[in-house]
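[step 3/7] fold_predict: job queued, chain A
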Amino acid sequence: MELKGLWGAFYRMSVIISRLAYLNLLWIVATILGLVVFGIMPATISMFTVVRKWILKEDDIPIFQTFIFTYKKEFLKTNWIMAIIVILGSLLFIDIRFTGFMRDSGYYNIFLGILFIASFLYLILVVFIAPVYVHYNLSIRRYITYSIMIGATNILYTIAILIALSSIYYSSMKVPGITLFFSFSVSAYITMYFANLSFNNLIKKQRSQIDSNISV
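[step 4/7] structure written:
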């Protein structure tokens, strides 16, 4: 029998909270089992796989089985992607440090502007790589390019994600217990929600372009 009214809302909310807490703990344990360095990306992709199904209204999926299956299946490929992201971040960091020594150069402002754009694109990559990975079936190179392209062309959703993640990070600093039960899973849910809106926008644009080409 389905509960209605206040009790029904309370029950649904308690289910959502318990699922997010469970998924958060799964992510932490799976990350630790992968020695953190090798576990963080597979665990993140597994978490986003579960969250994506929730957003697509597949509420009755077996959380543990879905998570573990994805973790094992995507372990190697996701670590290759993680390695690329770390290398790109390291190169960007080196460029930023190098630019710092060019303050007296006439090219300083130009390099600073380029690095600012590069840093923002890198941030978009980090934010969108997991949603794009679980939504599309692409090559590693295309995962990188699609993440940047989709995030850059849906800048309002990207900003909304960054604001939400900043708020969660701030809350976690104020109430450390949130990190253990909710920070990562809630961050994944919010990121996937706005990323899914971005994917839908991309589909609409593609359909609109097809329709315009047909009409011509």
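[step 5/7] annotate
Residues 194 and 200 are 10 Å apart (CA to CA).
The chain is about 85% helix and 0% strand.
exit 0
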